[in-house]
Each structure stands twice: as C-alpha cells, then as structure tokens.
C-alpha cells in the first residue's frame, strides 16, 4: 500500500518528480520479495505460502528458491524485476514520464498481488507444522536459474513498451530513443533465449520424456514474445539505419510486452493444461485480463492518434530494408501460428463445446513452411545494401547448386526427406558465413555477433532435424535371476552392474548402474527413482552419457523385486543442438556488450 500511496502522491506532485524520488519508490518495491526470500530461508511457518511450498529439512538451496515456486511468489518476483529494470533504466534515461509509466505498470501488478495473490497470508504458528515441501519436480538446480532468467526476458520487454508509448505520445522519434529500444530489446532477447533454452534442457533432463521440445502450451507461450522480439530487433535496425518502419517498430515494442503479460495470464488462469500451469481461482485470471485489455486499449489509442505523423517513403524491393521486412513477416506469422495453435483449443471448448488438442504435426508443418525461406534469407540478406542493391552476387548460383548437390547426396545415403531439406536450406548459410567471415576478418564485434547468431540457427536446425529423424528407443527388461545383459540394435550390449538404495536429506533414491558396451569401450548410466519427503511423491531421474555430439538417455520404467525395466533412447546430434543454443545466447551477449 505504501508504494501505491507514493505513486499517487508522485502523480499529484506532492512528491517531487526527481531521480531521487523515483529511486526511492523503485527500492521500496524491491523490499517485499526480499522479505519473502528471508521468510523461506528461516522456514517461517507463520506464512501460508512458506507452509505450502517449503519443508523444514529442505536444503537451504531449495528453501530460498521456493520463494518463486508458487503462484504468489512468482508474481511478487514479477514486481521485483519490473522495479529492478526501472532502477537500471534510470541510470541510462532520466525521463520522468517514462518512469511514471513503469511505476504505473508495477502498481497494477502490486494491486494484483494485494487483491488475489498475497504471499504474506498469516497462519497461526504450530510447532508440529513442518511444511508440505517444494514440488519434487522443481527440486533441480535449473529451478534456481530458469524461472528468474525467463522472467527477466519477459519483464525486460517493459522498457521497449514504455519507450514506444513515450515516443508515440510525445511525437519524439529520435534516433537516440530507437537505439535505446534496440539495446533493451537485445537485453530482453538474451534472457528470453537463455530462459527458453534452460527450460528446454530442464524438461529434457528431468521429465524423462526423451525430447527437447513438446509444444506444451506454456513452452509455446514463451516462444510468442521471443519471436516478436526477434522481429522487433531486426525492424529497429531499419528504423535506425534508414529512418523507415518506425510505426511498425513502435507497435512491435508495444505488442512484445503485451504478449508476455498474455502468457502470464494463460498460465495463471488455469485455462490451459500444462506441466507448468498453476491451479488457481478465476479472480487471478480476471485481473490479468483487465491489465491486458488496458494495455491493448492504450496501444490502439496511441496508434489512432499517431498514425498521421508517419509518412514514410517506400523502399526499393532489392534492398536490405525489404529483406528485413520479409524477415519480420515470417517471424510475426510464426508467432501467429503458435498463438492460434495454443488458444484455438480454448475457444473450441468455450464456444463450440468441443474438446480438441493441437499437437506437434500442426506446428511442425507450419514451421517447415515458414522456416525454409527464412533461413535462405538469413544467408543472403546481410550482404544486401541499404537503400538500393546494385551489385550482383556471383556466388549465389554456385552456392545454390552446391547446396542442391549436398542435399541429393544426403538423401541418397540417409533416405530422409526432412533431413535433406534441412541440408538444402542451411548449407547456403554455412557457405556464405565462411566466405563473408574470411573476407571481413577485422570487422567489429557487432558484425561477428550477427553471423554467429545466424550460424547457430543453422547448426540448431541441422541438429534438431537429425535428432528427431534418427533417434531410436529400446525398452529393456532385465530379470534378476535369468540375465543381466541385453543385446542392443547397434551391436552394443546393455549390462546391469548394480542396484542401489540410498537415503539423503529429504528423499530416498533407488538407482540402477547400467553399462553400454561395444566390447572395447564402456559408457556408464545411472538412472534412478527418487521418493521425496514429506509428500512421498516419486520422480524419475534421467541419466545420460555422451558420445561426441550424441547421447544415450536412460530412465527406469519399472523396478520390482525380481525385474528391472529400463527405457534407453539414443539421441544423435542432441549435444550439437545444445551447443548451437549456447552459441546463439553468446552471440546475443556479444551484441549487447559491443562497443558503441
């Protein structure tokens, strides 16, 4: 309530609109989340949130991170991060009106916390209460990193939002503000990409499904702002370099943040079924709908009032501006594909009273259509000139013919259309990157970050298609009295060496030591089942072993007194997929820290 009073007095000019007063409000808004973290760290069971999401014997590592393990705690983390971004942005830009908008959005979420998501609900102290414990699936080291990183990506989009709103209201379309938008969009993009990659790896290594992406609704929701932000970063380059696509860029700046709030609404409203979603009361979803409706109304109003201020010249069809506009269209269409696939089942159930699900075939088909031309554009667009391109690229026919040849060779040997197609669309990117980097060895960091990002996308596509098309799975059943060895389909042998039963601070682990042998080299795996206290919940713990870019992936399917079942999956090129994702994150980091 103190924050709300401060904000009202700031608007009424009772409190002066100075940098110091803004800092004070921001820092006050950081305190509640710090108090919640402290309450979890000392197991303060007078708070209902601590009782429901912590256990007295949990390691301190998980006690602290339990602060964002619940709906209430994660929304308070939103408030914390909004104000943290406000503090950092204040050091770069002291425009009071922009910061009032940040504080207004922060106040909306503070009201949301007070009305429907209070993490400080008091309960009577009881010495017999030990806590219900953090969800065992969340007891993973990535739980410390993934949610805050993803939230930093979501909430970082508030800065492009408030800058866009400020520019439209004040008709201030200066290059300086567009450059600020670009910097903060890249910072958000860095965290969004990192958060999505960490979440994907967490699901792969923890859930035991053997896949790296499941088109789960909450996974999809994180993709929408990522795709829109990717489009924004590319369109801002046009706005800065050519003084065009300004209204387009400002709208993307507005809709990126709205998309992140919409994703939060879907997760918190209990409208979607997901391994990530929170079971909640309808009031939470209703409050978020009001916030989204308000942000959309602001966006529409700003567009209506400002559209007459934009009279931009058309640009040449054969120019970098045209290619980047096409890039934007592909990314926005991709975001729409994900949006429709995610929300259509909701509308079908509410309006048509028909329950349907949209699965991987829909997404894979749509993305194949959109990605193929996009990757080809990535190979050639960076070499197209701004304004008008007149120089012919004599390398293009050679590159296309060579790519087609490699594509046909790969199809002949592997007999897989999808992998051959991925080769055809990525080989031009690889070849062009090598040639460009060879001829421009002493360029700046920005140049290298761009090509590293494009290369990482190429490697990612090759790895993703290969691992999905050529992985295989074996279900092994070892009967204790008859055999501890089973022949695998690739002339290797799986051998059970030992079964262990161990007790730890807050769980019991039953693990199986497994060897994969080809007669000369052995690979060790140790999948397990963990039984957590106090809930008694059982989780399947994955074990992996690496073979250069590939990996064996094992989970326990059954374990009884006389037999053990192991699910063994071979994932070729999966490590190349993770490596390319790291390359992409690193390329974004380079573009953020480059000398300006």
What structural keywords apply?
alpha+beta; 4-stranded antiparallel beta sheet; 596 residues
Protein described:
It is a single chain. With 596 residues, this protein is an alpha+beta fold. Among the domains are: 1-134, no CATH class; 392-470 and 576-585; 473-571, no CATH class. The chain is 61% helix and 12% strand. Strands 2, 3, 4, 5, 6 and 7 form a 6-stranded antiparallel β-sheet that branches. A hairpin with a 3-residue loop joins strand 9 (550-559) and strand 10. Helix 7 runs antiparallel to helix 9 and helix 17 (445-470) runs antiparallel to helix 18 (574-593). The longest helix has 33 residues, at 320-352. The protein is flat. The relative contact order is 0.08. The model has no long low-confidence stretch (mean pLDDT 86).
Number of helices: 18
Shape: flat
Order of helices and strands: HHHHHHHHHHHHHHHHHEEEEEEEEEEH
Distance between the termini: 41 Å
The average pLDDT score comes to 86
Largest β-sheet summary: 6 strands, antiparallel
Which radius of gyration do the C-alpha atoms yield? 26 Å
Q: Give the total of beta strands.
A: 10
Structural class call reads alpha+beta
**How much helical structure, as a percent, in the residues?**
55-70%
- Any low-confidence stretches, pLDDT <50, length ≥5? none
Assess the beta-strand content as a share of residues. 5-15%
